[in-house]
Design goal:
The protein is of the alpha/beta class. The protein has 2 domains: 53 residues, no CATH class; 147 residues, Rossmann fold, CATH 3.40.50.2000. Helix content is 44%, strand content 14%. The strands form 2 sheets. It has a 6-stranded parallel beta sheet, sandwiched between helices. It has a two-stranded parallel ribbon with strand order 1-2. β4, α3 and β5 form a beta-alpha-beta unit. α2 packs across α7 and α5 packs across α8. The protein is globular.
């Protein structure tokens, strides 16, 4: 019916998503980028918890199997907390019996998740699908926590490799393990990344910044729509 052509403006959450929509036929001049945001501000943590954390659905596309295989290499050198539920819950439960350094916390309320993130050494984001955005990443940034992310799609766009975190080859447990051990062994690098991650949040992912972005988009949409 062509109704997709009626709006004057479309919003995409990342430049990566914008390009995907353009490839699908949405006119580039109608597509703007406005990310999600975190509110209220949880405040920067200290990263003193001495653990890495995964937050998300326990499923194949989220990379949980790659994460567990990586930790068989990492072993006791880094503790891992896994937060979430999903179809691979039994796989995660079995892995915790073989890997004493891995703890599955199940589902937790958002305030508790943020509290855990605040003291994490880093967040691991191993998603093997093209995420729409990756909210856990910006939640980590809000708490000044760097991110080790699969280096593709929106995650690679959100995490600046070597600045706010590290990229690893998607689906590659050995590369993920190498990046985990590298970041864990370099506290000064982590300290710089914590500062950069928090600044990224303050510059791009606060409610105030996004409110101004959204108003500008609404004004643009109204300007492009003739009043009867």
């Amino acid at each position: 019916m062509g109704t997709w052509a009626k709006p004057t403006v479309y919003m995409a959450l990342t430049a990566f998503a914008r390009n995907m929509f353009i490839e699908a036929g949405v006119p580039p001049d109608k597509l703007v980028v406005k990310p999600n945001f975190v509110d209220p501000d949880p405040g920067a943590g200290t990263g003193s918890g001495d653990y890495a954390v995964f937050v998300g659905r326990l499923s194949v596309e989220k990379g949980i199997e790659t994460l567990l295989r990586a930790w068989r290499v990492v072993g006791p050198q880094v503790r891992l907390l896994i937060i979430g539920e999903g179809p691979l819950a039994s796989t995660v439960a079995a892995a915790t019996r073989d890997l004493p350094s891995v703890t599955w916390l199940g589902r937790r309320d958002p305030p508790e998740v943020l509290s855990i993130l605040r003291e994490a050494t880093f967040l691991v984001f191993p998603s093997e699908c093209y995420e729409t955005f990756g909210r856990a990443i910006v939640e980590a940034f809000a708490t000044a926590t760097p991110v080790i992310a699969a280096g593709h799609g929106s995650a690679a766009e959100l995490v600046a490799d070597g600045v706010t975190g590290l990229h690893f080859r998607p689906g590659d447990p050995l590369d993920l393990a190498a990046k985990v051990l590298h970041l864990n062994a370099h506290p000064q690098l982590r300290a710089r990344m914590r500062v950069a991650a928090r600044k990224e949040f303050e510059d791009r992912y606060t409610a105030d910044v996004n409110y101004r972005l959204l108003l500008a988009i609404y004004h643009r949409a109204l300007a492009g729509h003739p009043t009867p």
